[in-house]
Design a protein that fits this description.
about 140 residues; mainly alpha; Multidrug-efflux Transporter Regulator, Chain: A, Domain 2; 3 strands; about 60% helix; about 5% strand
Length: about 140
């Protein structure tokens, strides 16, 4: 079964222009075209597109995604290269997740800070607090 750009885009939850861009950048080496030049996606293309979307969402630049796709197209001789690319991106995601966890902790502190201030009607409430008044996980944010 074949799908149009619009149909495939809906299935993936992306804009049709995104798929056209991927094709223009050489990320879709196996997408067929009709006699009229329209892209015709197959079910098998979904796996490629999901991989591309995953890599893109992790922050991988299009040129690096293209390098990964090229390694896939070249076959088994490039398995080590593919593994290196994916492993490197995985490590980058782990670092991003740690950074996001730190940001979440700060935002949790700020929520507590402003909820406490709102209940008191003033931010100066925090100046009167002792360390014991501050939840333990937030004490390092208080000077």
């Amino acid at each position: 079964m074949f799908y149009t750009v619009g149909e495939m885009a809906r299935q993936l939850g992306v804009a049709a222009s995104t798929l056209r861009y991927y094709d223009k950048e050489g990320l879709l080496p196996y997408v067929e075209r009709s006699r009229g030049g329209l892209r015709m996606f197959k079910d098998e293309d979904m796996s490629w597109l999901k991989t591309i979307e995953c890599l893109k969402k992790t922050g991988m630049p299009i040129k690096d995604i293209k390098r990964f796709i090229d390694c896939c197209v070249e076959g088994d001789s490039r398995i080590a290269d593919r593994l290196a690319i994916v492993s490197s991106q995985r490590e980058a995601v782990i670092r991003q997740m740690a950074e996001l966890q730190d940001m979440l902790k700060m935002l949790n502190f700020k929520c507590w800070y402003y909820e406490t201030a709102q209940k008191a009607g003033t931010c100066s409430i925090h100046q009167q607090m002792t360390a014991d008044d501050v939840p333990e996980e937030f004490r390092h944010y208080i000077k």
